[in-house]
Amino acid sequence: MAYTFNVVMTCSGCSNAVNRALSRLEGVEKVDISLEKQEVVVEASTLTREQVLAAIKKTGKEVNE
């Protein structure tokens, strides 16, 4: 499953924080982050969209849905 989120990120530090949080999740196979597009695409085999969203929100970043 691939999930796409619009995440407010202002710098590479922001995107790195999101990447680290998602990379720690078991079941995440791939993370693509575009700082330019403010977009995070996550491929996860065993996680729901809600679980991935919760991990992103734990970083303190705003997610526009």
Features:
65 residues, alpha+beta, four-stranded antiparallel sheet, 2 helices, 4 strands, 32% helix, globular
Write a structural description.
This protein is α+β, with helices and mostly antiparallel strands. The chain is 32% helix and 32% strand. It has two helices and four strands; from the N terminus they run E-H-E-E-H-E. A four-stranded antiparallel sheet has the order 2-3-1-4, covered by helices on one side. The longest helix has 12 residues. The radius of gyration is 10 Å and the shape is globular. The model has no long low-confidence stretch (mean pLDDT 96).
Mean pLDDT: 96
Low-confidence stretches: none
Please work out how many helical segments DSSP would assign. 2
> Structural class from helices and strands?
alpha+beta
Helix content: 25-40%
Rg calculated over all Cα atoms: 10 Å
Portion in strands: 25-35%
Q: What is the rounded distance between the termini?
A: 18 Å
Main β-sheet, in a few words?
A: 4 strands, antiparallel
Spatial order of strands in the largest sheet: 2-3-1-4
* Helix and strand pattern: EHEEHE
Question: Strand tally, please?
Answer: 4
Basic shape = globular
Helix/strand layout:
Layout: E1 2-7, H1 12-23, E2 28-34, E3 39-44, H2 49-57, E4 63-64
Antiparallel strand pairs: 1-3, 1-4, 2-3
Give a quick rundown of the structure:
This is HMA domain-containing protein. This protein is α+β, with helices and mostly antiparallel strands and 65 residues long.
